[in-house]
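queue> holo job accepted (dicarbonimidic diamide)
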Amino acid sequence: MTGTLHVEAEPYTFEFDPAQSALLIIDMQRDFLEPAGFGEMLGNDVSQLRRTIEPNKRLLKAWRDAGLKVIHTREGHRPDLTDLPPAKKIRGGGKTTIGDPGPMGRILVRGEAGHDIIPELYPLPSEPVIDKPGKGAFYATDLHSILQHLGIKKLIVTGVTTEVCVNTTVREANDRGYDCLVPEDCVGSYFPEFQEAGLKMIKAQGGIFGWVSDSSKILAVLQNGKEQAS
Ligand code: C5J
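queue> job finished
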């Protein structure tokens, strides 16, 4: 699929060439989304995140069917925790913190069941998975190099959580010269008020960090692009 596609978005139309765009799915990990995971153990309502699974599935399928680039991220740390800042380890003062045994293995440790991506959105072997120690997907990772090598200029950013890892990544991407579109039904927060504010912050002031739309609008332009190409 080639040529510029136009998605209805806020604060104005988002234009992208699919060949120079990637779907970046942030931290759709079992510990954040699954009942009985670490997120729920902390008292969070995982249904607020689980509502994003179906829209993400539909967008991922359409994106894959169109032969476009998909990149996944996971937040987590080395098993020896040498990349875990001491400040992050003790943040929150909880009894159980990163690296401790949790409901699905050691919490946010690479290789543990809870750290992995939910089966519904599991990466294909051809799709890069970025293991990130921070909230932003660019900090201490090779994401920027990968995007540069692939000639990617625009990102469709989905995943969890809206106000933390999605927002941080969109800001990091914006500072590196990428345009980001965030479909609001494909991003989730445990807190409805942060969902709303997190999206408002992205599109405020003429799109200070990016654009906000809905996956149905992206699916419609992908379908149109397919029909025009055939
Ligand atoms: C993410 C978090 N993925 N909220 N992490 O947003 O700690």
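queue> The pocket of dicarbonimidic diamide is lined by residues 27, 75, 160-161, 164-165 (CB under 6 Å).
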